[in-house]
Amino acid sequence: MQREIEKKYELTNHDYEIIKDKCKFVENKELKDYYLDTADFILGKHNFYLRLRNGKYELKILTVDWEVHDCEEIEDEDIINEKLSEFNINIDTCTGVCFVHTQREKYEYDFNGITFTVDVDRYQYDARYEIEIILTDDSKFDWEEKIESFRKMIWLESDGGRKAMKVETCAMHQNIGYYEVISDY
């Protein structure tokens, strides 16, 4: 189990060139995410996002502080089913509600001993980048401030903000009922 602290930004040509120039390229990845929920979207109502990513189940339990997403990410199916049992469901009782196809370029940057990950994502309906810190403990810092310090230090210009999650954008086009549950429309 790990925690991800992430902030999303508009992808501009300027920022993309800075990311390519100043950050260490890690890999290109194709992601095929099938989001799963129940007919009444019980998971979405509680900010739980169950997905089948490239054939493996993942559960993200999201906390949103307007601009910064803080989420617990679980990949062990037994633990996922244990968390889902809170809603009297399991992986097998969920069905597909949305599909997100992403081409991702992953970069890293070490800033004062903190490894920042920068993911440049291009998907069906948009493109953006996110700056992320992955925590394996319960560190208590102002992570938004650290992300913003890093962003300004390498001269990225895009304004951060309540940029919709990819699943929100795709749901708006594919499953309006699910979109209405998971978004702040």
Compact summary:
The chain is α+β, with helices and mostly antiparallel strands.
Q: Can you tell me about this structure?
A:
With 185 residues, the chain is α+β, with helices and mostly antiparallel strands. Helices cover 26% and strands 45% of the residues. It has helices spanning 13-22, 42-45, 77-84, 143-153, 166-174, 176-182, and strands at 2-10, 24-37, 48-53, 56-65, 68-74, 95-111, 114-123, 126-135. Strands 1-5-4-3-2-6-7-8 form an 8-stranded antiparallel beta barrel, surrounded by 4 helices. Helix 5 (166-174) runs antiparallel to helix 6. The longest helix has 11 residues, at 143-153.
Low-pLDDT runs of 5+ residues are none
The major β-sheet equals: 8 strands, antiparallel, barrel
Secondary-structure element series:
EHEHEEEHEEEHHH
Question: In which order are the strands of the major sheet placed?
Answer: 1-5-4-3-2-6-7-8
Write the SSE topology.
Layout lengths: L1 E9 L2 H10 L1 E14 L4 H4 L2 E6 L2 E10 L2 E7 L2 H8 L10 E17 L2 E10 L2 E10 L7 H11 L12 H9 L1 H7 L3
Antiparallel strand pairs: 1-5, 1-8, 2-3, 2-6, 3-4, 4-5, 6-7, 7-8
Helix pairs in contact: 5-6
Notable characteristics:
185 residues, alpha+beta, 8-stranded antiparallel barrel, 6 helices
